[in-house]
Known about the structure:
It contains 20 helices and 27 strands. By secondary structure, the chain is α/β, with parallel strands linked by helices. Helix 4 packs across helix 7, helix 9 (about 265-270) packs across helix 15 (about 450-460) and helix 12 (about 365-375) packs across helix 15 (about 450-460). Residues about 1-60 have low confidence and may be disordered. The site of cobalt (II) ion has 8 residues, from loops.
Amino acid sequence: MASTYARFDTVFLFSRFAGAKYSPFSPSPSLLSSGFQLRTKPASSRLQSIVALSSSSGAVVAGTDSIEIKSLPTKPIEGQKTGTSGLRKKVKVFMEENYLANWIQALFNSLPLEDYKNATLVLGGDGRYFNKEASQIIIKIAAGNGVGTILVGKEGILSTPAVSAVIRKRKANGGFIMSASHNPGGPEYDWGIKFNYSSGQPAPESITDKIYGNTLSISEIKVAEIPDIDLSQVGVTKYGSFSVEVIDPVSDYLELMEDVFDFDLIRGLLSRPDFGFMFDAMHAVTGAYAKPIFVDNLGAKPDSISNGVPLEDFGHGHPDPNLTYAKDLVDVMYRDDGPDFGAASDGDGDRNMVLGNKFFVTPSDSVAIIAANAQEAIPYFRAGPKGLARSMPTSGALDRVAEKLKLPFFEVPTGWKFFGNLMDAGKLSICGEESFGTGSDHIREKDGIWAVLAWLSILAHRNKDTKAGDKLVSVADVVKEYWATYGRNFFSRYDYEECESEGANKMIEYLRDIVSKSKAGESYGNYVLQFADDFSYTDPVDGSVASKQGVRFVFTDGSRIIFRLSGTGSAGATVRIYIEQFEPDVSKHDVDAQIALKPLIDLALSVSKLKDFTGREKPTVIT
Length: 623
Ligand code: VG1
Ligand code: CO
């Protein structure tokens, strides 16, 4: 160990780096590789033979005795502040000199030594453009900072839930996820990076704030002089005491799913000739998981997977599983002869959209229905869920399930990172967000395929005794039965994407001003105000406070209007308006949500003066 990192404390500069206009992290992949490989001790032919050996056995370890660590001078770069979920920018920005490298080094500068020195970190992503080059950069800086082992998905592929699963299973100290999630990919679009901690949860704001602080004072990047790692073969490559293990992206995750769910039960449903199933991977990361899980393991027909090959630009698509961007699936599901169950997932595989034949399940209802049915349909919850939680703008459907099942309930700000502490403390089992995120404490991320398997389990359980030829209990039946029991929370979200930041910020300031002067009992059209505020959350586990998390107007009948700015966009500002109204009367449950919510939507638009502030007549996406 001492000899391997002998140069660590006395890092020296190579003259070619000092004052050079380019860096080894320059946009051009060829420059990237040549910049390193030319100066690397083991010849690339040597590496190839190592890889060739390891590919046949999958586990041959070889390499050099020690690695050299170089110090690369760098300068702070503005604007590297993480949002709701990691750092997201246009890929061109990430490809600028040292942009990614600075952030990665700032991360190491922010972690306690014991969290990374000789530690194991996981690395994977959604297969988008620039992930391959980024993998090499991250591996070299990790080695440069004294990380012991990197577990990386083959071809750099690991879904966000799989990274969380691998961190937990292999007891890794953390992991990197290379993804801008639901944001589009390709040379003109977005890239992103996220860091998760040892229980698999997204790093808390205390850490991401520190990273941001360090990006503003960074002066050197520590890089190991090793060749690019061949990510196309499963196996281990060692350089001194640093090793890289290329792992199969699916197996750990699949094993976990087999523990959580009753695969035989689901197989029974998927193999029925009278049950039609369709999964749209949107050319994103779940393409790598859908066939092995749904087809090879659970017996779905091979043609039930659409857009099942992960592509660097998601086939020019916007990998966001909603009614607008997953239109192909929606069209199939709304045919008379369409499948009985359809689902889609996003770029990095943590979101899900669930549909029945001619029936859309809102994510807010979906998490409530999964929670209400979990104990009887999913083996993992046999003892009953420990507690339930939702993000603040998510509808109050889940609240009613928690009340009925007498379970602890939590309302947290938008972003999955707020659920992790509650799960670690054993207070929370099932949670969700209105933004097509659903999950449980089997990992510490939302999980698209988990949600699909949860729904298939519920349907399989309900149809255990349905004989061939009889009408199956459908997705719509399950949802309507749920509404009849608990009441229906009508919910809709309006997104105004890429507005001018100035107008959007002014609108939020204007709303904050209204909130600060508001009083209970004031009337807003036909609604009477119960309270208005800017949501603030105190974590019950560690006491940390997150403030200014969304302006909300809550009315005496439980209706709510909520305004927030997105924290995941890469350009301008995206305004989100969330509208909700509770309806206990079963005879009114079949009304279209847009019609039921029209008065509240109009109220939201007039209270906020959205048109005046943003110039937008219409939302970009309605959910
Ligand atoms: C959005 C969603 C939020 C979700 C986040 C990350 O954030 O609203 O619920 O957790 O994306 O999802 P924002 O700040 O844009 O509203 V993912 O699948 O993009 O990692
Ligand atoms: Co995602």
